[in-house]
């Protein structure tokens, strides 16, 4: 038995040494390869539009593929489709259950989906025959709340839930096709890459998993976070995944070498990340935090290059449009932000309307 | 990255030592297979004689040859081939002739040789201490002072540890030296190079440890760290390259032409980049040359590629690919009929647009078609995709059609923000079109400058709300402030906390309350 104990101790210490080796090599190689790239300089984004109309906390938003429309969900029981350039509301869809936590826009632009504490994913057809927006399907099979949903096409949707599983649904028949089980904690978010063959999910078991849709198995598990993974997104080249967690860090995981490459953290940030989105080239990563700010990170040099401070409450969702032109943030605001005049780019804010200001 | 993963198995998820030993064994096995095929007399790397000082060493190859062979064999780019080649050198399957201590693959005329299987890592791992002692003793006897620092340390340490067999070590060393003197000079040099290379890989300069398990573990960790180092460099440089390539296309980093619609409220950017425009922009056409995926994801790119392929009489490939995409993303109920149609048009013997798929994939696909499902044509689609990527895509990029399009492509003029006259025009048109939903109470300020907005009920349709006040307020604010700076200039700015303060003080409108146009009593 003494030998077994010793072997086990050896194995443990080898494991620690391997982790230390990984970190040492990562820390050593990154500065070298990145030293020749140009410095980004301070990035200042400016509010261009404020989308007002929600009456309660905004929980989620998602851009359409045409980069002009976006959908947002709020706990006042409304799903609003905005024409962001004119700030008009194209559709205001009343929901059966007001406890909505996520929303998604189909790539074709024909449908939107939402779900939340009702454990169901409701799909609405925006291009109905008589112009009314009606519920097309209600997908009910989860035993926990719906934390995120994403369309693969007009006939398939993936949902992640608080019952620790993700499901692939066939929208036509309204039935589930595949179950992706493997997480040990609530699945909090998911992201789908451009080729729609795989997807990643982040969960409260501090890991992120990469799943193959066709084989319905988990091909990679990325650990390294010390707390719940709240937000996840694919790097634009499809070879890496960025995650944001309650431990106040964001991490970049590479899919090919199956390891964590970079951690985006700062000692002055102590609150969790709620949402994350990369810019079109991947050079900038925008992350929304619980301290009401959005930090902009230089993805290669792991430095903070900008802050968007204008929300008066937690930033709950962030999205960069498909052509990279604008970024939209949604928050639990109760006040209207004032416009700012510096900088050169685009931010839109979704905020709760404050009736008092009209008096 | 399908090809590189054929050579390098991914690191196991669970960090147990047995898993890592297994991984290392698998990795060595893969590398050995590669090396064996590299040494194939017909299909392997070109070998030639290499002059080293005054001796001629046979069967040597240049770094360039190795990289090119790997690129061709695995259909990867030169970076990935260099990565694999570097692994082969670091793990001791190939060794450099001129500078034996520098274990990297240089893609130039530097000569390399294959390590003999006797000295492969897998056959003799972990390297025995006795052998190392004999090697060091040989070196010491052959020429005093030839041992370098860490070798001297190891020599002394081994002398202490295996003192009981030291006579045997010295005897063996002498015997081996005598035997080697009887060989031809070229052979002797080759054997010495091989042995030296083996020990450079297996006894890298780490500080000698007391425990044998520690020694093994340190060697393993050294291998692992090299593997990581090489992988990380290649991954990092991949990211840097991607970011740099896409930077001109990233509006947040570099602005966009003619202008950012969010800043100038001018939607011309979207108009000139729409799917059915006659002349595309230069940036858009350049983007198609980044990767095949970019070309296929732009509907205009697909049309251009189709036009090119039709000229080359190989358009059926793209049609087949498009049909497969439609199958994968389409409705479930239509799958059997779609599969049937694809079979009749593309796969059946004697079909009008028969696609050229290899026999194995064809057999598998035809078998799978009997029970059609969404992914049944995946293998065939992948085959055609890679065929187009390797063959048609590079030819299209070199073709006259593409070059002409690139020459004709426009670089739009930057438009400045529109000021007063156009603001009035827009406000005027907005007023004429404004509607208001009856169910929502009128907020003050929607009546502006004394104009009334006519409410029109639109029954049975979704509500469309036009918030004129916001539009006009935003417009007037833009009119009154200074022109914006050009997007590409980055300048130092005050830290966020202070800037928020100053921004608020610069605001001209803090909200609708002090508006002179407010109509009282409405909300």
TrEMBL record, chain A:
Residue stretches of each WD repeat: 51-92, 139-179, 180-221, 222-263
Keywords: Repeat, Transducer, WD repeat
Any one biological process term the GO annotation gives: signal transduction
Gene name of the record: gnb3a
Protein name as catalogued: Guanine nucleotide-binding protein G(I)/G(S)/G(T) subunit beta-3-like
Family, as annotated: Belongs to the WD repeat G protein beta family.
From TrEMBL, chain B:
GO biological process, one term: regulation of G protein-coupled receptor signaling pathway
Keyword Metal-binding (UniProt): no
Pfam family of the protein (one): RGS_DHEX
Superkingdom of the organism of origin: Eukaryota
Annotated keywords: Signal transduction inhibitor
Record-linked InterPro entries: DEP_dom (IPR000591), G-protein_gamma-like_dom (IPR015898), GGL_sf (IPR036284), RGS (IPR016137), RGS6/7/9/11 (IPR047016), RGS6/7/9/11_DHEX_sf (IPR047017), RGS_DHEX (IPR040759), RGS_sf (IPR036305)
SUPFAM superfamilies the UniProt entry points to: Regulator of G-protein signaling, RGS (SSF48097), Transducin (heterotrimeric G protein), gamma chain (SSF48670), Winged helix' DNA-binding domain (SSF46785)
Compositional bias of kind Basic residues: 480-492
Coiled-coil regions, chain positions: none
Molecular function GO terms recorded: GTPase activator activity
GO cellular component entries: cytoplasm; neuron projection; plasma membrane
Protein name: Regulator of G-protein signaling 11
Organism: Denticeps clupeoides
